[in-house]
Amino acid sequence: MSLSPSPLLPRRPVPALRVPLVGGGDFVLGVAPGQHFDLVVVYRGLHCPLCAKYLLELSRLQDEFAQRGVSIIAVSSDDAERAAAMAEKVPGLRFGYGLNLHSARQWGLYISAGRGKTSINIEEPALFAEPGVFLVRPDGTLYYGAVQTMPFARPNFSDLLLAVDFAISKDYPARGEYAGALPL
């Protein structure tokens, strides 16, 4: 078994995703997809101050995404208590928690080992998933994916809105799908 993450391929099905939601119930990718896309944003967890800032920007733009037929879920490997605390910091978003690290690896995410308390004095979990941003089509295939090994330099949500506009208006296909042999 490979220990390194495998990239997801555009136009191919993404792995299953089922996580409990802050406030009750479960999120199951594909059960009630957005008209055009589901935006799955994996964040590091409550311990990450950059995550809270990043998710606040997403929260500010969530109505814009909804107008474009994009449903949003923010997910981490945090437990219920930590996820609820993040939801208090970032009101309005739908938060899933308890992302299984095996599932995170199937999504191509990097896994980090905790290193103590962060700059906001919150202990990092023993292991947690690093960030990822995914646009998934209603048919369950990947349209766009970005993963990071660090908490910084993530895709800008305003830019992603423009990309969604372009993709919808031009019926632009997902790119990066070629998985065949390469010439020498």
Which properties best describe this structure?
single chain, 184 residues, alpha/beta, 5-stranded mixed β-sheet, two-stranded antiparallel ribbon
Question: Care to give the gist of this entry?
Answer:
This protein is an alpha/beta fold.
Residues in helix, %: 25-40%
How would you state the average pLDDT, rounded? Answer: 96
Proportion of β residues?
15-25%
Number of helices: 4
- Profile the largest sheet: 5 strands, mixed
Side-by-side strand order of the widest sheet: 5-4-3-8-9
- In terms of per-residue confidence, which ranges show pLDDT below 50 for 5 or more consecutive residues? none
Gyration radius, in Å? 16 Å
Helices and strands, in N-to-C order? EEEHEHEHEEEEH
How many beta-strand elements? Answer: 9
Task: Tell me about this structure.
This protein has helices at residues 49-67, 80-89, 101-106, 157-170; strands spanning 18-20, 26-28, 37-42, 70-75, 95-96, 111-113, 127-129, 132-136, 142-147. With 184 residues, it is an alpha/beta fold. The strands form 3 sheets. A 5-stranded mixed beta sheet has the order 5-4-3-8-9. A two-stranded antiparallel sheet has the order 1-2. 34% of the residues are buried. The model has no long low-confidence stretch (mean pLDDT 96).
Please give the structural blueprint:
Blueprint: E1 18-20, E2 26-28, E3 37-42, H1 49-67, E4 70-75, H2 80-89, E5 95-96, H3 101-106, E6 111-113, E7 127-129, E8 132-136, E9 142-147, H4 157-170
Parallel strand pairs: 3-4, 4-5
Antiparallel strand pairs: 1-2, 3-8, 6-7, 8-9
